[in-house]
Amino acid sequence: MRLSTAFAAWISFVPVAAMSGHVPTAVVPALFAPDTIPAGADDGAAAFAPDGATVYFMRATGDGSTLMESRRRDGRWSVPTVAPFSGRWHDLDPAMAPDGSFLLFASNRPTASGGPPLDAVHAGKRHVGQGMNLWRVDRQGDHWGAPVRLPDVVNRCSLIASPSIAADGSLYFIGCAGPRGDFALLRAPYHDGRYAAPRAVALGDAGATVRDPAIAPDGSFIVVSIKHAPQAPYRLAIAFRTADGWSAPQDLGDAVNGGTENMGAQLGPDRRTLYFYSDRRAAGAQADAAWNNGHDHIWQVSLAPWLDAHRRIDP
User: Fold this and answer.
1) What is the reported pTM?
2) Which terminal CB of the chain, N or C, has fewer other CB atoms within 10 Å?
3) Domain 42-313 sits in CATH 2.120.10.30
4) What is the pLDDT of residue 160?
5) Out of 13-27, 50-64, 98-112, 175-189, least confident range
6) Where are the domains of the chain?
7) Cα separation, 279 vs 299, whole angstroms
């Protein structure tokens, strides 16, 4: 199963206008941890511990996906193992809190103990076991606690995914909004240990199809995937916080947006490296690698050119 179909299969798309913006310079993504990739793997959405020494990501398994864990030792990443809180249900989209105290992820696991997997209900149709809600697992010393479903104010429907967490606790995610339950980029503020009702984030053209947010911890910028038309590929773009909301999303350019999809944006521990998954193929010395087969893999690229250019324009 391709990771890109895990959630997008139930989302309706609409055409959008082209994004504006100038790419500061051409940068070429590098494959993340190629020594850990089995030849047939589909991997994505890398969430790092604050020290950068542990990463959690999703790996396609049969008709679903599992969250994996890998640790960096002596400059190399270990062979991934199933994360201690995953492995039974369809789990995806891990997102680490900036301070490392908890991790969020999407899952079809039952909303009540002993119940069936969550069904997806959309456009009047029910899809058995294909639902997604957001769950939280807290760091407790050197291990993780038991996953806890986020409250209904966040999990307001059966298709909620792609969380990203700001330092103030605000949650950005993809969920249902409006009277028709359309999918949108949402933000749920966090105050006094509770999430407030989420509101749609106005980003780019009103008709834009926006997915997979990666919010900077300080909220100064956000990276998303955006579609231009129903059959167009998702492309990564960056937007900056302004006095009135957000700047127009700036496409990261063809050198970054390779292959047929570029999704699952996550920021690394340095807050300047972007991790994402794509089915792009490598050239040069890696062209004959066993993993270079059109599957989804995790790639990394520096956002420094865009961040530095913005700082020069808006110091």
Assistant:
1) 0.91
2) C
3) yes
4) 96
5) 13-27
6) 42-313
7) 10
